[in-house]
Amino acid sequence: MTIRYGCFFSYAHGQHAFMSKFKNDLIEALKCYLEPHFDTENELFVDSEQLGGGDDLDQRIALAMCQSVCMIVIYTPKYEAHAYTRREFAAMQLIEDERRLWYPLPSHLIIPVIMTRHPISLPRQITDPGMYVDFSRYTLASGDLKTNPDFLPDIEKIVQRIASHYHHLKCCTPPDHDCSRFVLPGIPPEWRAIPPPHFPR
């Protein structure tokens, strides 16, 4: 197995400034602070930057996930509503289960970053992994994440977590492991049970 990326970026695409600016600001901040930790690897895999067209999209996503150290999830209510992002989440859970056999995981591979909270509650898939960072106070007026002192401590937590996994993975990956064999799982069920319809009596 070749480690090609420090982190796979999983997010629901947005058309307007708020979602796109947050994603781009977070990408820039993480690339900036992750760079000193890696050798020849790219800091992040971002599908909008590194995927072209074609019919083998699932295969290329699966390969990139397997070749990534961790996964960043930009959580919004839109994230859990999309079947494909839930599928990416489930895929990284499978990768985590496999790597748990290689070395004692210092933490989960999925790092949730809360951009916008759900008006009811965060789903357990986001709260259960043990550590998420809350950026829900971010606005278009927040400025540059990589220099904003309100967000730098959380950026540092993310960077240290990824770096820890990176060094474990470099030492403990089986030499014959082949990422080309990894395939994405089927689409998982929705994260929240849909209540039955209420009919008038």
Structure overview:
By secondary structure, this protein is an alpha/beta fold. Helix content is 39%, strand content 12%. The protein is built from 7 helices and 5 strands, in the order βαβααβααβαβα. The chain has a 5-stranded parallel sheet. Helix 1 (17-34) links the parallel strand 1 and strand 2. Helix 1 crosses helix 7.
SSE diagram, text form:
Blueprint: E1 5-10, H1 17-34, E2 42-45, H2 47-50, H3 57-66, E3 68-75, H4 77-81, H5 83-99, E4 110-114, H6 124-127, E5 133-134, H7 152-172
Parallel strand pairs: 1-2, 1-3, 3-4, 4-5
Helix pairs in contact: 1-7
Write out key terms for the chains shown.
201 residues; alpha/beta; Rossmann fold; 5-stranded parallel β-sheet; 7 helices; 39% helix; globular
Q: Can I get a quick summary?
A:
The chain is of the alpha/beta class and 201 residues long. The chain contains seven helices and five strands.
- CATH homologous superfamily name? Toll/interleukin-1 receptor homology (TIR) domain
Count of folded domains: 1
**Which class of secondary structure composition applies to the elements?**
alpha/beta
What's the count of strands? 5
- Mind summarizing the main beta sheet? 5 strands, parallel
Count of individual helical segments: 7
Shape: globular
SSE sequence, one letter per element: EHEHHEHHEHEH
| CATH architecture call | 3-Layer(aba) Sandwich
Question: What name does the CATH topology carry?
Answer: Rossmann fold
| CATH class category label | Alpha Beta
Adjacency order of strands in the biggest sheet:
2-1-3-4-5
User: Strand percentage, roughly?
Assistant: 5-15%
